[in-house]
Amino acid sequence: VPADERPTTRQVNIVHLAWDVMVGSGTLLFLLSLWYGATWLFRRRMPASRWFLRAAACAGVLAVLSMEAGWIVTEVGRQPWIVYNHMKVEDGATENTGVWISFVAVVVIYVALAATTILVLRGMSRRLRRQDGFVEHDAPYAPRVAASADAQKDALPR
Amino acid sequence: MSTTVAFVLLLAVTAYAVFGGADFGAGFWDLTAGGDDRGRRPRALIERSIGPVWEANHVWLIFIFVVSWTGFSEAYASIMLTLFVPLTLAALGIVFRGASFAFRKAVDASWSRRVFGAAFAASSILVPYFMGSVAGGIASGRVPAGGRAGDPVDSWLNPTSIFAGLLAVAMVAYVAAVYLVWEARGVGERDLVDYFRRRSVGAAVVVGAILGGGLFVVRADAEYVFDGLTSRALPIAIVGGLCGVGALVLLLRGAARGARLLAALAVAALVVTWGFAQWPYLLPESLTVSAAAAPSGTLTALVVAVGLFVVLVIPGFLLLYILDQRRLLPEEGVDEPGSVA
Predict the structure, then answer these.
(1) Nearest residue of B to residue A119, measured between CA atoms
(2) How far apart are CA A106 and CA B130, in angstroms?
(3) How far apart are CA B263 and CA A142, in angstroms?
(4) Contact at CB, B103 and A157, closer than 8 angstroms
């Protein structure tokens, strides 16, 4: 492979690390589901141990981490090509000025949306705790409780 | 083959205008519904009617992008490089709209409902405006061929773009109002039927006025398209006009179902008229459809993919629309986690 078609050493290291993170966290998540599956198979209930609940709480973060690592593997791993053997990333990039403005705008907006999401979710959980339960018209994204499931089934074909 | 793909593209744009347009237009009526008390019932109707299908309609937009970059890569590059400002603003508007629509349902303090409601409604207007201005920039020949960037400002701040943007806003408001007449009748709210009927007639008059004034703008600013309007595209324009007038008559006589169909046809005819008016150009007077087309192998693959889309996706869409029309769908967010795209 000619020198200018090779990824840099740093890129190779990033891909290697991201790959390890992706596969490692994926394996941990798989073991967690095996734990659940085994308990369900032998005892017909979900695992009750504190460590399982702790691990399950971490699993959400780990899943996102694993997904992001996967993206890093594909996107850094493709360097320097954007279309393999046809076009390099530097030739494919736009020549428009002002890309930074769009980039900053997108980052700012998504940070604001993320903050709003957290605030809205906290507000919902506060309201649910205060009301000590589920009120359909008040919190549309709230988890269902068994009691209201029948009521909803009746309410559907309006 | 390239003609087939161009026609598919035009149909997809039409579908987005008719189905997606109704969603955006509902946001317009949400914005203009007045204060908290006065606007409560219209807003509730709007929320109920667009809730179940509100993000599905963006499938059309994605389809349009995929077909244009696969089938007409050069034109796609030119359009994106030239019109990135209105396209970026429209994309941000879509994000804001979806997010604030979902947030509004999840908060209960009236001030935060108001903030999210305003963000939802304002972005519902900005998105069709910018989409329209993109169409205007293309129609008036301001996008150069060859995958090059045109003027980043003049390409969307020009007479034809402003006309097309305003027309798009008026048009989606009109379609949405006609649909909402039907929705209001479906849930048996007589006064809201009248409420939206008055507004749909008003919007129809505004659309007509903008179209009338726009003809002069187009004649001065987009000559090729104007020539097409008075020749190639004239039959479709006449059919569209008749549908529009027919919808107006049916609205005034209270036949909501027929009015809805004719209004949708009128809007569809308007989009198709634009497509025929600039035929055979994809970018008027610099790039024809056949010159812009990808190699035949790519086009064949694309046509096969479109065939699969018709077989696999359209039935799903039809089911969604039918269930929605028969009110068999659960309220948004109760049964399924909301998707903030």
Answers:
(1) B107
(2) 18
(3) 38
(4) no
